[in-house]
Amino acid sequence: MGSMSNTTVDMEVEVDVLIVGTGPAGASLAAFLGEYGIKGLIVGKTSSTVITPRAHITNKGAFECLRDIGLEEECRSVACPIEMSMFQRICTSMAGQEISRAYMLGNGPITHGEYIEASPCAHADLPQTKLEPILLKHATQHGFRLRFDHELLGFSKNAKSGRIESLVRCTVTGGHTLIRSKYLCGADGANSTIVRDLNLPLNDRPFQGLALNVLIEADMSFDVAESDALLLFQTHLMTHSTGLLHILTRPDRPQPSFGVIGILRFVKPWTRWVMILLAAEGVTEVTATEADILARVEELIDDASVDVKIKRISRWTINECYAERYSKDNVFCLGDAVHRHPPHNGLGSNTCVQDAYNLAWKLAYVLKGKADPSLLETYNDERQPVGEYIVRRANDTRRSHSTFYGILGTFEPQMEDRIAALAELQEDSEAGRQRRAAFQKITEEMAEDRDGLGQEMNQLYRSQAIYPDDEQDPPFIEEDSKKAALQYHQSTYPGSRLPHA
Hints:
By secondary structure, the protein is an alpha+beta fold. Helix content is about 30%, strand content about 25%. The chain is globular and about 80 Å long.
Protein backbone atom coordinates (compact mmCIF):
# COMPACT_ATOMS: atom_id res chain seq x y z
CA MET A 1 0.00 0.00 0.00
CA GLY A 2 1.53 3.30 -1.02
CA SER A 3 4.76 3.73 -2.96
CA MET A 4 7.51 1.39 -1.72
CA SER A 5 9.08 -0.09 -4.85
CA ASN A 6 12.45 0.91 -6.31
CA THR A 7 13.51 2.73 -3.16
CA THR A 8 16.95 2.34 -1.60
CA VAL A 9 16.57 1.48 2.08
CA ASP A 10 19.26 3.02 4.27
CA MET A 11 18.23 1.44 7.57
CA GLU A 12 15.97 -1.32 8.88
CA VAL A 13 14.27 -1.28 12.29
CA GLU A 14 12.05 -3.76 14.14
CA VAL A 15 9.54 -2.68 16.80
CA ASP A 16 6.38 -4.02 18.36
CA VAL A 17 4.30 -0.93 17.56
CA LEU A 18 4.81 1.85 15.02
CA ILE A 19 2.64 4.95 15.53
CA VAL A 20 2.34 7.47 12.70
CA GLY A 21 1.30 10.89 13.94
CA THR A 22 2.48 12.92 16.95
CA GLY A 23 -0.74 14.82 17.71
CA PRO A 24 -3.08 14.13 20.64
CA ALA A 25 -4.11 10.68 19.38
CA GLY A 26 -0.64 9.37 18.53
CA ALA A 27 1.08 10.99 21.50
CA SER A 28 -1.58 9.63 23.88
CA LEU A 29 -1.28 6.14 22.44
CA ALA A 30 2.50 6.17 22.85
CA ALA A 31 2.17 7.45 26.44
CA PHE A 32 -0.40 4.80 27.39
CA LEU A 33 1.52 1.97 25.72
CA GLY A 34 4.74 3.10 27.37
CA GLU A 35 3.03 3.00 30.75
CA TYR A 36 2.14 -0.65 30.06
CA GLY A 37 5.79 -1.42 29.31
CA ILE A 38 5.36 -1.66 25.53
CA LYS A 39 8.27 -0.34 23.48
CA GLY A 40 7.81 1.18 20.07
CA LEU A 41 8.44 4.05 17.69
CA ILE A 42 6.35 7.15 16.98
CA VAL A 43 7.03 9.21 13.85
CA GLY A 44 5.60 12.44 12.50
CA LYS A 45 6.24 14.48 9.38
CA THR A 46 6.16 17.77 11.31
CA SER A 47 9.33 19.21 12.80
CA SER A 48 7.95 19.71 16.30
CA THR A 49 4.87 19.50 18.42
CA VAL A 50 2.04 21.76 17.28
CA ILE A 51 2.80 25.49 17.44
CA THR A 52 -0.79 26.79 17.33
CA PRO A 53 -3.22 26.16 20.22
CA ARG A 54 -5.95 24.25 18.27
CA ALA A 55 -7.80 21.96 20.69
CA HIS A 56 -8.00 23.32 24.21
CA ILE A 57 -10.88 22.14 26.44
CA THR A 58 -9.96 18.85 28.13
CA ASN A 59 -12.98 17.13 29.61
CA LYS A 60 -13.53 14.71 32.47
CA GLY A 61 -13.27 11.58 30.33
CA ALA A 62 -9.89 12.57 28.90
CA PHE A 63 -8.57 13.69 32.29
CA GLU A 64 -9.55 10.34 33.78
CA CYS A 65 -7.34 8.66 31.17
CA LEU A 66 -4.46 11.03 31.92
CA ARG A 67 -4.97 10.49 35.63
CA ASP A 68 -4.57 6.75 35.11
CA ILE A 69 -0.95 7.21 34.03
CA GLY A 70 -0.13 9.95 36.54
CA LEU A 71 -0.28 12.93 34.19
CA GLU A 72 -3.35 14.77 35.45
CA GLU A 73 -1.54 17.10 37.85
CA GLU A 74 1.22 17.96 35.39
CA CYS A 75 -1.40 18.80 32.76
CA ARG A 76 -3.36 20.95 35.21
CA SER A 77 -0.21 22.85 36.15
CA VAL A 78 -0.09 24.34 32.63
CA ALA A 79 -3.86 24.63 32.11
CA CYS A 80 -6.33 27.34 33.04
CA PRO A 81 -9.03 26.30 35.52
CA ILE A 82 -12.48 25.98 34.04
CA GLU A 83 -13.76 28.82 36.25
CA MET A 84 -12.00 31.16 33.82
CA SER A 85 -14.26 29.84 31.05
CA MET A 86 -17.47 30.89 32.76
CA PHE A 87 -19.65 32.00 29.85
CA GLN A 88 -20.50 31.74 26.21
CA ARG A 89 -21.24 35.30 25.08
CA ILE A 90 -22.92 36.70 21.98
CA CYS A 91 -21.85 40.29 21.28
CA THR A 92 -21.74 42.82 18.49
CA SER A 93 -18.04 43.20 19.41
CA MET A 94 -15.82 42.73 22.45
CA ALA A 95 -16.43 46.34 23.47
CA GLY A 96 -19.93 46.50 22.05
CA GLN A 97 -23.41 45.38 22.98
CA GLU A 98 -23.77 42.03 24.71
CA ILE A 99 -26.79 40.24 23.26
CA SER A 100 -26.63 37.07 25.33
CA ARG A 101 -24.53 35.21 27.85
CA ALA A 102 -24.99 31.71 29.19
CA TYR A 103 -23.06 29.59 31.67
CA MET A 104 -21.08 26.71 30.27
CA LEU A 105 -19.00 23.68 31.28
CA GLY A 106 -20.69 23.21 34.64
CA ASN A 107 -20.08 26.75 35.84
CA GLY A 108 -23.79 27.52 36.20
CA PRO A 109 -25.75 27.01 39.43
CA ILE A 110 -28.00 24.36 37.85
CA THR A 111 -25.28 22.15 36.36
CA HIS A 112 -22.40 22.73 38.77
CA GLY A 113 -23.34 19.96 41.17
CA GLU A 114 -23.89 17.45 38.35
CA TYR A 115 -20.39 18.11 37.02
CA ILE A 116 -18.80 17.69 40.46
CA GLU A 117 -20.71 14.48 41.13
CA ALA A 118 -19.81 12.93 37.77
CA SER A 119 -16.05 12.76 38.32
CA PRO A 120 -13.26 14.10 40.53
CA CYS A 121 -11.50 15.17 37.31
CA ALA A 122 -12.69 18.68 36.48
CA HIS A 123 -12.58 20.17 33.00
CA ALA A 124 -9.71 22.55 32.23
CA ASP A 125 -8.52 24.71 29.37
CA LEU A 126 -5.40 22.84 28.24
CA PRO A 127 -4.16 24.00 24.84
CA GLN A 128 -2.81 21.36 22.49
CA THR A 129 0.51 23.23 22.52
CA LYS A 130 0.85 22.31 26.21
CA LEU A 131 -0.64 18.79 26.08
CA GLU A 132 1.45 17.28 23.28
CA PRO A 133 4.89 17.88 24.88
CA ILE A 134 3.71 16.32 28.15
CA LEU A 135 2.42 13.21 26.39
CA LEU A 136 5.50 12.79 24.22
CA LYS A 137 7.87 13.31 27.14
CA HIS A 138 6.06 10.58 29.07
CA ALA A 139 6.16 8.26 26.04
CA THR A 140 9.88 8.73 25.43
CA GLN A 141 10.65 8.19 29.11
CA HIS A 142 8.70 4.92 29.06
CA GLY A 143 10.12 3.02 26.13
CA PHE A 144 9.05 4.86 22.97
CA ARG A 145 11.43 6.50 20.54
CA LEU A 146 10.31 9.66 18.77
CA ARG A 147 11.25 10.86 15.31
CA PHE A 148 10.03 14.17 13.91
CA ASP A 149 10.60 15.05 10.22
CA HIS A 150 9.75 11.49 9.16
CA GLU A 151 7.08 10.87 6.54
CA LEU A 152 5.32 7.56 5.91
CA LEU A 153 5.56 6.64 2.22
CA GLY A 154 3.74 3.32 2.29
CA PHE A 155 3.25 0.02 4.07
CA SER A 156 2.43 -3.61 3.37
CA LYS A 157 2.14 -6.88 5.23
CA ASN A 158 4.92 -9.43 4.87
CA ALA A 159 3.06 -12.66 4.13
CA LYS A 160 5.83 -14.81 5.59
CA SER A 161 6.54 -13.01 8.88
CA GLY A 162 3.10 -11.46 9.36
CA ARG A 163 4.71 -8.12 10.22
CA ILE A 164 3.73 -4.76 8.78
CA GLU A 165 6.59 -3.25 6.76
CA SER A 166 6.46 0.55 6.60
CA LEU A 167 8.73 2.73 4.51
CA VAL A 168 9.54 6.07 6.13
CA ARG A 169 11.55 8.93 4.65
CA CYS A 170 13.48 11.47 6.71
CA THR A 171 12.53 14.86 5.26
CA VAL A 172 15.82 16.37 6.53
CA THR A 173 18.36 13.89 5.11
CA GLY A 174 16.23 12.17 2.48
CA GLY A 175 17.19 8.80 3.93
CA HIS A 176 14.74 5.88 3.94
CA THR A 177 14.02 3.51 6.82
CA LEU A 178 12.12 0.24 6.59
CA ILE A 179 10.26 -0.34 9.86
CA ARG A 180 8.93 -3.81 10.62
CA SER A 181 6.26 -3.83 13.32
CA LYS A 182 3.72 -6.23 14.73
CA TYR A 183 1.18 -3.41 14.68
CA LEU A 184 0.86 -0.14 12.76
CA CYS A 185 -1.28 2.63 14.26
CA GLY A 186 -2.48 5.48 12.07
CA ALA A 187 -2.95 8.70 14.02
CA ASP A 188 -2.01 10.82 11.04
CA GLY A 189 -4.87 13.31 11.12
CA ALA A 190 -7.71 14.41 8.91
CA ASN A 191 -5.78 13.75 5.70
CA SER A 192 -4.70 10.30 6.83
CA THR A 193 -2.72 8.39 4.22
CA ILE A 194 -3.16 5.21 6.26
CA VAL A 195 -6.96 5.43 6.17
CA ARG A 196 -6.74 6.13 2.46
CA ASP A 197 -4.33 3.28 1.69
CA LEU A 198 -6.33 0.84 3.81
CA ASN A 199 -9.39 1.92 1.85
CA LEU A 200 -11.41 2.16 5.06
CA PRO A 201 -15.02 3.07 4.23
CA LEU A 202 -15.79 6.72 5.01
CA ASN A 203 -19.15 8.38 5.53
CA ASP A 204 -18.16 11.74 4.18
CA ARG A 205 -20.34 14.75 3.40
CA PRO A 206 -18.83 17.25 0.96
CA PHE A 207 -17.05 20.48 1.92
CA GLN A 208 -19.02 22.14 4.74
CA GLY A 209 -17.29 25.49 4.93
CA LEU A 210 -14.06 27.39 5.42
CA ALA A 211 -12.57 29.11 8.48
CA LEU A 212 -9.43 30.90 9.59
CA ASN A 213 -7.67 30.60 12.94
CA VAL A 214 -5.92 33.87 13.69
CA LEU A 215 -3.51 33.67 16.63
CA ILE A 216 -3.11 37.16 18.08
CA GLU A 217 -1.49 39.03 20.90
CA ALA A 218 -3.84 41.64 22.32
CA ASP A 219 -3.19 42.78 25.87
CA MET A 220 -6.55 43.47 27.50
CA SER A 221 -5.32 43.25 31.10
CA PHE A 222 -4.21 46.01 33.43
CA ASP A 223 -4.46 44.59 36.93
CA VAL A 224 -4.12 41.32 38.77
CA ALA A 225 -6.07 40.49 41.91
CA GLU A 226 -6.02 37.49 44.20
CA SER A 227 -9.38 35.98 45.14
CA ASP A 228 -9.45 32.78 47.19
CA ALA A 229 -7.41 30.13 45.33
CA LEU A 230 -8.19 31.49 41.87
CA LEU A 231 -6.04 34.09 40.20
CA LEU A 232 -8.37 36.55 38.51
CA PHE A 233 -7.03 38.68 35.71
CA GLN A 234 -9.00 41.92 35.55
CA THR A 235 -9.37 43.97 32.38
CA HIS A 236 -11.59 46.73 31.08
CA LEU A 237 -13.06 44.29 28.53
CA MET A 238 -13.02 41.14 30.66
CA THR A 239 -13.74 42.25 34.23
CA HIS A 240 -17.34 41.03 34.07
CA SER A 241 -17.03 38.87 30.97
CA THR A 242 -14.75 35.92 31.73
CA GLY A 243 -16.00 33.77 28.91
CA LEU A 244 -14.56 30.85 27.04
CA LEU A 245 -16.19 31.85 23.76
CA HIS A 246 -17.11 35.33 22.58
CA ILE A 247 -19.21 35.14 19.40
CA LEU A 248 -18.89 38.46 17.57
CA THR A 249 -21.25 39.62 14.79
CA ARG A 250 -20.50 43.35 14.16
CA PRO A 251 -23.72 44.06 12.21
CA ASP A 252 -22.77 47.71 11.67
CA ARG A 253 -19.77 46.97 9.46
CA PRO A 254 -19.39 45.49 5.98
CA GLN A 255 -18.95 41.73 6.14
CA PRO A 256 -15.81 40.46 4.42
CA SER A 257 -16.39 37.08 2.81
CA PHE A 258 -13.43 35.57 4.70
CA GLY A 259 -14.83 36.50 8.12
CA VAL A 260 -18.57 37.03 8.43
CA ILE A 261 -18.54 35.97 12.09
CA GLY A 262 -15.73 36.00 14.64
CA ILE A 263 -15.37 33.67 17.62
CA LEU A 264 -12.74 34.76 20.13
CA ARG A 265 -11.26 32.51 22.82
CA PHE A 266 -8.33 33.07 25.10
CA VAL A 267 -5.09 31.10 24.95
CA LYS A 268 -3.32 32.97 27.75
CA PRO A 269 -5.56 35.22 29.88
CA TRP A 270 -5.92 37.95 28.72
CA THR A 271 -3.06 38.65 26.35
CA ARG A 272 -3.06 35.82 23.82
CA TRP A 273 -6.09 34.75 21.81
CA VAL A 274 -7.37 32.83 18.83
CA MET A 275 -9.91 34.60 16.65
CA ILE A 276 -11.81 32.11 14.50
CA LEU A 277 -13.16 33.80 11.39
CA LEU A 278 -16.00 31.91 9.71
CA ALA A 279 -16.15 32.50 5.96
CA ALA A 280 -19.38 33.17 4.10
CA GLU A 281 -21.25 30.18 2.70
CA GLY A 282 -19.79 29.03 -0.60
CA VAL A 283 -16.35 30.59 -0.07
CA THR A 284 -13.68 28.02 -0.94
CA GLU A 285 -10.56 30.18 -1.03
CA VAL A 286 -9.29 33.13 1.01
CA THR A 287 -7.45 35.84 -0.90
CA ALA A 288 -7.45 38.44 1.88
CA THR A 289 -4.11 39.91 2.92
CA GLU A 290 -2.81 39.89 6.48
CA ALA A 291 -3.72 43.58 6.66
CA ASP A 292 -7.30 42.79 5.66
CA ILE A 293 -7.52 40.09 8.32
CA LEU A 294 -5.99 42.35 10.99
CA ALA A 295 -8.53 45.05 10.17
CA ARG A 296 -11.39 42.59 10.61
CA VAL A 297 -10.00 41.35 13.92
CA GLU A 298 -9.66 44.92 15.18
CA GLU A 299 -13.25 45.64 14.12
CA LEU A 300 -14.50 42.65 16.09
CA ILE A 301 -12.55 43.69 19.21
CA ASP A 302 -13.67 47.31 18.68
CA ASP A 303 -11.33 49.01 21.16
CA ALA A 304 -8.69 51.37 19.80
CA SER A 305 -6.69 51.13 23.03
CA VAL A 306 -5.94 47.44 22.40
CA ASP A 307 -2.87 46.89 20.25
CA VAL A 308 -3.41 43.75 18.14
CA LYS A 309 -0.54 41.78 16.65
CA ILE A 310 -1.09 38.76 14.41
CA LYS A 311 1.26 35.89 15.22
CA ARG A 312 -0.01 33.24 12.83
CA ILE A 313 -2.90 32.57 10.43
CA SER A 314 -4.05 29.06 9.54
CA ARG A 315 -6.85 27.93 7.26
CA TRP A 316 -9.08 24.93 7.91
CA THR A 317 -12.12 23.34 6.37
CA ILE A 318 -15.23 22.25 8.22
CA ASN A 319 -15.53 18.48 7.98
CA GLU A 320 -18.35 16.02 8.49
CA CYS A 321 -16.71 12.65 8.05
CA TYR A 322 -16.32 9.42 10.01
CA ALA A 323 -14.86 6.03 9.20
CA GLU A 324 -17.24 3.09 9.30
CA ARG A 325 -14.35 0.85 10.33
CA TYR A 326 -11.23 1.75 12.31
CA SER A 327 -8.97 -1.16 11.49
CA LYS A 328 -7.94 -3.80 9.00
CA ASP A 329 -5.75 -6.76 9.93
CA ASN A 330 -2.91 -5.45 12.17
CA VAL A 331 -3.38 -1.78 11.22
CA PHE A 332 -5.45 0.42 13.54
CA CYS A 333 -6.53 4.03 13.01
CA LEU A 334 -7.59 6.56 15.62
CA GLY A 335 -8.20 10.23 16.30
CA ASP A 336 -8.92 12.72 13.54
CA ALA A 337 -7.94 10.08 10.99
CA VAL A 338 -11.31 8.41 11.62
CA HIS A 339 -13.55 11.22 12.94
CA ARG A 340 -13.38 14.71 11.42
CA HIS A 341 -15.68 17.52 12.52
CA PRO A 342 -15.78 21.19 13.57
CA PRO A 343 -14.79 22.12 17.15
CA HIS A 344 -18.34 22.57 18.46
CA ASN A 345 -19.02 20.72 21.74
CA GLY A 346 -15.26 20.41 22.38
CA LEU A 347 -15.11 16.67 21.77
CA GLY A 348 -12.27 16.35 19.25
CA SER A 349 -8.99 15.87 21.12
CA ASN A 350 -10.88 14.37 24.07
CA THR A 351 -12.13 11.60 21.81
CA CYS A 352 -8.60 11.17 20.41
CA VAL A 353 -7.24 10.55 23.92
CA GLN A 354 -10.01 8.07 24.71
CA ASP A 355 -9.53 6.23 21.40
CA ALA A 356 -5.89 5.82 22.36
CA TYR A 357 -6.72 4.67 25.89
CA ASN A 358 -9.05 1.97 24.58
CA LEU A 359 -6.61 0.70 21.97
CA ALA A 360 -3.54 0.85 24.22
CA TRP A 361 -4.59 -1.61 26.91
CA LYS A 362 -5.82 -4.08 24.31
CA LEU A 363 -2.57 -3.94 22.33
CA ALA A 364 -0.62 -4.31 25.57
CA TYR A 365 -2.61 -7.35 26.70
CA VAL A 366 -2.19 -9.06 23.34
CA LEU A 367 1.54 -8.26 23.08
CA LYS A 368 2.12 -9.59 26.61
CA GLY A 369 0.19 -12.78 25.88
CA LYS A 370 -2.56 -11.96 28.37
CA ALA A 371 -5.31 -11.90 25.74
CA ASP A 372 -6.11 -13.48 22.40
CA PRO A 373 -5.59 -11.21 19.35
CA SER A 374 -9.36 -11.31 18.80
CA LEU A 375 -9.61 -8.79 21.67
CA LEU A 376 -8.37 -6.15 19.23
CA GLU A 377 -11.54 -6.54 17.17
CA THR A 378 -13.45 -4.93 20.02
CA TYR A 379 -11.57 -1.64 19.53
CA ASN A 380 -13.61 -0.95 16.41
CA ASP A 381 -16.85 -2.18 17.98
CA GLU A 382 -16.48 0.09 21.00
CA ARG A 383 -14.94 3.25 19.59
CA GLN A 384 -16.45 3.58 16.11
CA PRO A 385 -19.97 4.36 17.41
CA VAL A 386 -18.47 7.08 19.63
CA GLY A 387 -16.68 8.67 16.68
CA GLU A 388 -19.81 8.55 14.53
CA TYR A 389 -21.82 10.18 17.32
CA ILE A 390 -19.43 13.09 17.92
CA VAL A 391 -19.21 13.89 14.20
CA ARG A 392 -22.99 14.06 13.97
CA ARG A 393 -23.28 15.93 17.28
CA ALA A 394 -20.71 18.61 16.38
CA ASN A 395 -22.23 19.23 12.97
CA ASP A 396 -25.78 19.34 14.34
CA THR A 397 -24.55 22.02 16.73
CA ARG A 398 -22.93 23.86 13.82
CA ARG A 399 -26.26 23.83 11.99
CA SER A 400 -28.00 25.15 15.14
CA HIS A 401 -25.49 27.99 15.21
CA SER A 402 -26.39 28.87 11.63
CA THR A 403 -30.07 29.08 12.62
CA PHE A 404 -29.08 31.20 15.60
CA TYR A 405 -27.11 33.63 13.43
CA GLY A 406 -30.04 33.82 11.04
CA ILE A 407 -32.37 34.93 13.85
CA LEU A 408 -29.89 37.69 14.71
CA GLY A 409 -29.96 38.83 11.08
CA THR A 410 -26.24 38.14 10.71
CA PHE A 411 -26.59 36.74 7.21
CA GLU A 412 -28.58 39.68 5.84
CA PRO A 413 -26.55 41.02 2.90
CA GLN A 414 -27.32 44.68 3.62
CA MET A 415 -25.90 46.40 6.67
CA GLU A 416 -29.14 48.29 7.27
CA ASP A 417 -31.08 45.02 7.44
CA ARG A 418 -28.61 43.51 9.94
CA ILE A 419 -28.90 46.55 12.18
CA ALA A 420 -32.70 46.50 11.88
CA ALA A 421 -32.89 42.80 12.79
CA LEU A 422 -30.85 43.37 15.93
CA ALA A 423 -32.95 46.40 16.86
CA GLU A 424 -36.14 44.39 16.37
CA LEU A 425 -34.91 41.92 18.97
CA GLN A 426 -35.45 44.69 21.56
CA GLU A 427 -38.66 46.17 20.21
CA ASP A 428 -41.96 46.22 22.09
CA SER A 429 -43.81 44.87 19.08
CA GLU A 430 -45.25 41.59 17.83
CA ALA A 431 -42.31 41.17 15.47
CA GLY A 432 -39.94 41.80 18.37
CA ARG A 433 -41.72 39.27 20.57
CA GLN A 434 -41.57 36.65 17.83
CA ARG A 435 -37.88 37.24 17.23
CA ARG A 436 -37.14 37.04 20.97
CA ALA A 437 -39.13 33.83 21.26
CA ALA A 438 -37.19 32.31 18.37
CA PHE A 439 -33.94 33.53 19.92
CA GLN A 440 -34.83 32.01 23.31
CA LYS A 441 -35.83 28.70 21.71
CA ILE A 442 -32.63 28.25 19.73
CA THR A 443 -30.52 29.33 22.72
CA GLU A 444 -32.12 26.58 24.80
CA GLU A 445 -31.65 24.07 21.99
CA MET A 446 -27.94 24.91 21.94
CA ALA A 447 -27.51 23.99 25.62
CA GLU A 448 -25.56 20.81 24.80
CA ASP A 449 -22.93 22.99 23.12
CA ARG A 450 -22.32 24.55 26.52
CA ASP A 451 -23.07 21.82 29.05
CA GLY A 452 -22.92 18.47 27.25
CA LEU A 453 -21.97 16.30 30.22
CA GLY A 454 -24.01 13.37 28.92
CA GLN A 455 -22.46 13.38 25.48
CA GLU A 456 -19.04 13.23 27.15
CA MET A 457 -19.79 10.48 29.68
CA ASN A 458 -22.72 8.31 28.54
CA GLN A 459 -20.91 6.03 26.10
CA LEU A 460 -22.09 2.43 26.37
CA TYR A 461 -19.65 -0.08 24.87
CA ARG A 462 -21.03 -3.18 23.22
CA SER A 463 -18.55 -5.83 22.06
CA GLN A 464 -17.39 -9.37 22.63
CA ALA A 465 -15.22 -8.06 25.47
CA ILE A 466 -18.33 -7.02 27.41
CA TYR A 467 -20.21 -9.69 29.37
CA PRO A 468 -23.82 -8.64 30.09
CA ASP A 469 -25.40 -12.12 30.23
CA ASP A 470 -25.91 -12.21 34.00
CA GLU A 471 -27.62 -8.81 34.11
CA GLN A 472 -31.29 -9.02 35.03
CA ASP A 473 -32.33 -5.71 33.49
CA PRO A 474 -31.33 -4.05 30.22
CA PRO A 475 -29.19 -0.90 30.39
CA PHE A 476 -30.90 2.44 30.74
CA ILE A 477 -30.94 4.24 27.40
CA GLU A 478 -32.20 7.81 27.35
CA GLU A 479 -34.45 8.09 24.30
CA ASP A 480 -34.60 11.87 24.40
CA SER A 481 -31.46 12.88 22.49
CA LYS A 482 -31.29 16.30 24.17
CA LYS A 483 -31.43 14.80 27.67
CA ALA A 484 -28.91 12.16 26.64
CA ALA A 485 -26.49 14.91 25.56
CA LEU A 486 -26.99 17.05 28.67
CA GLN A 487 -27.37 14.58 31.53
CA TYR A 488 -24.93 11.90 32.63
CA HIS A 489 -26.68 8.74 33.82
CA GLN A 490 -24.36 6.85 36.16
CA SER A 491 -24.56 3.10 35.74
CA THR A 492 -22.65 -0.06 36.61
CA TYR A 493 -24.09 -1.95 33.63
CA PRO A 494 -21.25 -3.72 31.77
CA GLY A 495 -19.88 -1.42 29.09
CA SER A 496 -20.74 1.80 30.95
CA ARG A 497 -18.23 4.18 32.46
CA LEU A 498 -17.61 2.92 35.99
CA PRO A 499 -18.98 5.53 38.43
CA HIS A 500 -16.70 7.03 41.05
CA ALA A 501 -17.32 6.02 44.64
